[in-house]
Amino acid sequence: MAAAAAGELIRQDFSARLGSGQAVSVDNPYGDVRLRFGGYQDELEINTLAQQPQQAAAILLQPGVVDGIYRIAPRLPVDTLIAEGQRLDLVVFVPLGHNVQVRTESGVIESRGIRADIDLRSARGNIAIRGTSGSINAETGPGTIEASLLRAPPGSRQHLATSTGSIVLAVSDELDANLELSTSAAFATEFSLHVENLRGQEPNKRATAQIGEGKADVIVESRRGEIRLLRWTGFTTVNGKPVDEDEQADTDSD
Questions:
Q1: Which run of H or E residues covers position 245?
Q2: How far apart are the C-alpha atoms of 227 and 145, rounded to whole Å?
């Protein structure tokens, strides 16, 4: 990526053929990461958008296989600091059946329509999840989490956690999972909860509920942020299975 004039935006695209079931790892300390469903073949696509200040060293990206995992890890040259206003945002189109791990610093992580397990962690950024058909693990510090869950994979243990941020979780009556919610702040819900006070602990309250059949576990934790549990009706039916309407719209062109 060549140096550019101040404030210039530079776009790059990459693609790769993944091995069957090959996992994908994204580690981007310089901006946002957005995951999108990439179709039914094993083709991975990456769109990048860099903001490159004049005279700043370029953020380099050379994705490839490391220890059997397809790794996407942009980095500045050794002994180089990020310049004011410099950033790199990624959009990654992940095909069916490829688990994904994402790491950011303050960047947003957004996942829509992924058909595999996802593991999302940000030091400070917000996380948003819709239409995932696999297991979900998501964690951030003071950032927020917003998630809309499809039916939980039987036997899975899904986890959403923040340190001080709020969590908004929307689920349908077909979730088929046992929920455990913990916070020292308030619960807001459209479902019936059993609430237990945990004196002298943080979080100091735990709430439980079963939605549908209890075939999986969903754990939701924030030490000091509000937790909202909402009823989600944004489903249509495709071949007898619930599908998020937004997710379906994203993939109609595939």
A1: helix 245-251
A2: 10
